[in-house]
Amino acid sequence: MSHGIIIIPTYNEIENIERLIRNIFSLQRKFHILVVDDNSPDSTAAMVRELQSEYFGALFLEEREGKLGLGTAYIHGFKWSLKRDYEYIFEMDADFSHSPNDLIRLYNTCAKKGADMAIGSRYVTGVNVINWPMSRVLLSWLASKYVRVITGMDIHDTTAGFVCYKRKVLETIDLDRVHFVGYAFQIEMKFKAYQHKFEIKEIPVIFTDRTRGTSKMSGGIISEAIFGVINMKLKSLFNKMTK
């Protein structure tokens, strides 16, 4: 059994998924992979099934009935992983915006440097983003600043989706009470880990926008993040007052 598993949610990632899986399995440190596919019409899941015979016992696939959102895909993956013996559980995008080579750095930050949660951060040493238009870089950077101010978290990249969790973090967080399904899901998970006083460390990574496939970003996802953060913070304050 590998100590670590990479959860990769997919929807129409046929152009990326095989190359990404092969890249991860070529790393010096061995990880398992769980693909959570939301019924991709482009046959992403079929490609993963084909690769499972080649990577038997290390590549897993969970197929869902429809496009149910990033957050629910990760929750599904977390619960699946916690039923098994994985000590380190990762979030990773399918589009190569996260470099597979950085998985080992995230792992080492938790396994060797004492972090409970390691974040691949675009902003901890400046702005490390490639191929994004300036307007999107500014929006993302301001969103993280906004979240830091509202929540009080000392995290530079609060919306990052490249994360390694120690098992105990996901066992402690009540996954059934994680509310957000889109962009704000990443913020909520960090906030819950912060509230439980887990050791959170950021490591600098270079984020490269996808060159194949279609972005899943939308105005609704951004609105959820902006307004959801205020609601999340207010609820946490109310819970403190009622204890």
TrEMBL record:
<comment type="similarity">
    <text>Belongs to the glycosyltransferase 2 family.</text>
</comment>
<dbReference type="InterPro" id="IPR001173">
    <property type="entry name" value="Glyco_trans_2-like"/>
</dbReference>
<dbReference type="InterPro" id="IPR039528">
    <property type="entry name" value="DPM1-like"/>
</dbReference>
<protein>
    <submittedName>
        <fullName>Glycosyl transferase family 2</fullName>
    </submittedName>
</protein>
<dbReference type="InterPro" id="IPR029044">
    <property type="entry name" value="Nucleotide-diphossugar_trans"/>
</dbReference>
<dbReference type="GO" id="GO:0004582">
    <property type="term" value="F:dolichyl-phosphate beta-D-mannosyltransferase activity"/>
</dbReference>
<keyword id="KW-0808">Transferase</keyword>
<dbReference type="GO" id="GO:0016020">
    <property type="term" value="C:membrane"/>
</dbReference>
<feature type="domain" description="Glycosyltransferase 2-like">
    <location>
        <begin position="6"/>
        <end position="173"/>
    </location>
</feature>
<keyword id="KW-0328">Glycosyltransferase</keyword>
<dbReference type="GO" id="GO:0009247">
    <property type="term" value="P:glycolipid biosynthetic process"/>
</dbReference>
<dbReference type="Pfam" id="PF00535">
    <property type="entry name" value="Glycos_transf_2"/>
</dbReference>
